[in-house]
Amino acid sequence: MAGSSTSYYFVIIGTKDNPLYEAEFGTFKQGGDGIPKFREEQRHMNQFIAHSSLDCIEDQQWASKEMYLKTVDKFNNTWVSCFLTGGNIKFLLVHDTRSDEPIRQFFADVYDLYCKTLMNPFYEVNMAIRSQTFDQKIKAAAKKYL
Amino acid sequence: MALPLEMPPRVRAAMNTSKASPMYNLRSSIASTGSTTSLTSLFAGTGASLPRDIVDDIKSVIHHAFVPHIAVHVSDDVDEVVREKGLPDFYQLIRPYGEKVQGRITARDSQGSSVPFEDFAVRFVRLSDVAQKPDRKGSTSGNSFRNGEYGGAGIPEAINSEELPLADELLDLHLSHAEELIDTNLATETENHTGQAYYLLYLRKILSGFPVTLHETWAHPVACLIAISSRNTTPLDTLRQLYKSGSEVNIPGYVNKEYLRYYVLVHDEDKDDIVKSTALFEQMKRHFGLHCHLIRLRSSMCIVSDEDSVPVAKSQWLPASEELAELHAHQEEDIESDTSSRFIHGSDEAAIKTMIREMVAQSVIPFMERNIASWNDQILSRRKGIGGRVLSFSRRFLGSTATRSATNSATASNFDSVTNSYDPMTPEAQMRKLADWSFMLRDWKLAYDVYNTIRTDFNNDKAWLHVAGAQEMTIISLLLTGQPITPKIRADTIDIYLDAACYSYVTRFRAIYAALRCLLVTVELLRLAGGSSAELAAKWAIKALDLNIRPTVGRALISQRVGDCYAVRQGAGSGGWGGRRRKAAMWHVLAAETWIRLGKFAQARHCIDVAMPKYANTEFVLIRRFVEQMKLDSGHVNLLDLKIDTGVGGTGGQVVEVGNREGEEEEEEEEHGDGEVEKPRFDGKRRSILIPQTPNGDAPGMMTMDESFDDGPL
Fold first, then answer.
1. Is B168 within a domain?
2. Residue B614 confidence (pLDDT) above 80
3. Cβ-based contacts of A43 with chain B (< 8 Å)
4. Separation of alpha carbons A97 and A103, rounded Å
5. Residue B639 lies in a domain
6. Region B178-183: what's the mean pLDDT?
7. Distances (CA, A) of A120 to A113, A114, B693
8. pTM of the prediction?
9. pLDDT tens, B74-97?
10. A52 touches B at CB < 8 Å
11. How close, in Å, is residue A67 to chain B by CA atoms?
12. Which ipTM did the prediction report?
C-alpha cells in the first residue's frame, strides 16, 4: 500500500467529523527517513478510511473503558488505531503494520500536547490546530515512537 | 412483456427489474415503479429490516435459481412442427413458460404438511447440454462441461462456469445501452437504471447457468421430457428409441440416470386428426404409464394481426452467453426484422402452460416427494442410527481416536478419489441429492439437517469439493429457515463455513464461479437479515471483491453492493449510533470510481448522489478534491455549475433557490428520494448552503449539492 517502508497518516477528528489536524509521516525505524511514502491515490484513501472508521469507533467506544481503543478498523492492508479523548475528540492513525505498544505511547504524547493546546485561551474545542509548535512536537513524537 | 395477470405485483416487479434488455423492454421497466418506491423507503426504514417487497425481490431470485432442472429430448418431427410456427425448436418454445408454473403448486414437506407455492419454477435444459462434451462449444451453451482430461487428478474445470466473464460482458452491454438512452434523453435517470436493478440482473445471470458439477446436483436432471408429434409414422418405436438414446447420451458418471421420464405427444391441430391422436395417446398411456401428456399445438405461423396472437414469452433466466448471442444477432439485423418478438396463438400458450403445470404438479413434484421420503427413511435415518450406535459404542470401549479411524474405514470406500466424485448410488451421493431436492421444494429445515449430516461424512472422506458445497448450502439453507441469527451462529457457523468453503473453492480448486456464487447468495441473505448481519454481509462482499481483481462491471456492482449492505445498518437513535453510514458512503465513492474508469457515467453519478450527503460538508481536503474530480469526470458538474451561479450571484438567495429547484425537479426526482435518507442531518445545516463555509479554501460549489437533497415542498 505505502511503498517500501511503513508510512503513517495521523489525524485528529473533532466532534462533528471535522479534521482538526492532519499529518503524514514515514517511519524512522529500520533506517527510515521519516518521509511519508504514500502514493498519490493512497492519500485521499487515507482520509476516506479514517473517516469511515468513525462508524466502528462509535460502536466500540462504549465497550472499552480505556481511552486507547487499539486497532478499530481494517481496510485491505491498512489498519486504523484510535485514541479517544474525554471530550470525544478522536486521534486516528492509519498504518500498515501492526504495533500496538509504540502507537499507544505516541498517542499518550499527543494527548499531552492536545491538552496543552486546549489550555490556550484563544483555542476553542473543534477549532483546527494550526500551531507550528504543535506540528513540530507531533513530528518529534512520531520520530520517537513510530 | 406478457406477464400473466394473476401474478402478485411483487413478483411482477421482480421480473421487471431484471428486464431482458433495455432495448426493447425499456418501457416496461420504467413503468414498474414497484421496486423504485421500495428502494427509497429502504433508506428511510427506521428498524433494521428491509421493506417486504425488496425482501421478496431478492428471495424470489434465490428461490428461482435453485429449481429442478428438466431435460428436454424430442424427436425431429416435433421440432419440425415448431419450426413451421417460426420458432427455432420445441425447447425454445416451452422454456420461458417453465419459469413461472401457472397457478399454485403444493408440495409436502418432511413433516407431512403441504406448503403452497405461488411462484414455483422449473428450468428446461437440452438433454445434450447435460451430457459430457469432449470440448467446449464456444458460447452456445451455458452448461458445457469438461472433465478429466484438463483437470488431472479429477480436478474438474466444469465447476468453473464460463458464464462469469460473459455475465460481466452482458451487463456491460446493458449498461452501455442505458447510458446511450440517458445521453439522448430517451430515458430519465431513474432508479431502475441506476439502482439495484442491475445488481439483481447480475446476480440472476450468475445464478442462471449452473454448470453440471460433481459436488452438487442442481443441474442434474430431475426429469426428462420425451416428445414426439402426431406426424410420426412409428410413434411408439420412436418413443422407445428416444428413451434409449436418452439413456445412452454420454452423461457424466456422477449424474444419477434414474430420473423421471415424461412422455408428451404433440398433436398438430392444423394438419392432423385429433381422433387418431387420441387413440395414439391412449396407446401411449398403456405402454408408458401415467406420465403422459397430449398437447395440442397449431403448426401454422402466427402473426401480430391474428385474433388471439400473443407474443412468445421472454425467458428471464437466459444464461448470459445465450442472451449475449441474441443481443448481438439483434444488433446486426436490428432495423429490418424484429426477431425478438415472435407471436404464437393464445391457445398454444395456454396448452403449453397447462402441460407444464400438469407435468410439475402431477408427476415431477410427487416423484420428488416420493424420493425424498424414501431416501429420508432409508438412508438418512439408517445412517444416523448406525452412526450414533457406532459412535457411542466406540466411545465406550475404544476411546475417541479409534472412533475416527473406524468411521474413516467404514466410509472411505465410497469416495472415488480418481474422479473426485461419488457414484450416484452411494449413500453420500443420495443424501446430497435428498438435500438438494428438499431445498428445491423449499423445505429448508430438512435440507439444513441433511447438509449438516453429510458435511461430516464428506469431511471424513476428505472430499473437499463436496465439503465446500455442503458448507455453502448449510449456510444458505440456515439463513432461509428464517430462524434468528444470533451472534453465536454468526461466529461459529456462518463465518467459519463461509471461510472454509471459499478457501476450498478458490485455493484447492480454483473454482472462482462457485466461490462467487456462494458469497453473493450468502451476502444477499445476510443483508436481508439486517442489523449486524448486514455488516457481516458487507464483510463477505468485500471478500468477493478479492476474487476478481480486474475492474469489470461485476466488480463495480459488487462494490456498490458493499455500500448498500452497510447502508442497511441504520443504527439507533437520532444520531444513528452504531450505523454504518460513513462506510456506506465510502464504498459508494469507491464504486463510483470504478464506474468512471469503466466509462459508465450514469452509474457513477448515481453512486455519487448516494454518497454525497455524507461528504457534502466534509472538511477533509483530499476527500473534497477527489469527490469533486469524480463529479467532473462523470458529468455531474453541469448541475453544479448551475448551483454555483445561484449561490454566488443571488443576493436574494432563498428566492432564486426555490425557482431553481423547481426547474430541476425533473432530473432530480429519483435522487431526491435518496436524499431523504440524510434529511435529519441536513436540517441544521441548511442555512449555510448559500454562504458556504470554506475553511480550506476549496471551491464553494461543493456545498450546493445538498440543496437537491433537501426536502422541498413538492
1. no
2. yes
3. 622
4. 11
5. yes
6. 68
7. 11, 10, 24
8. 0.77
9. 999 999 888 888 888 899 889 989
10. yes
11. 18
12. 0.93
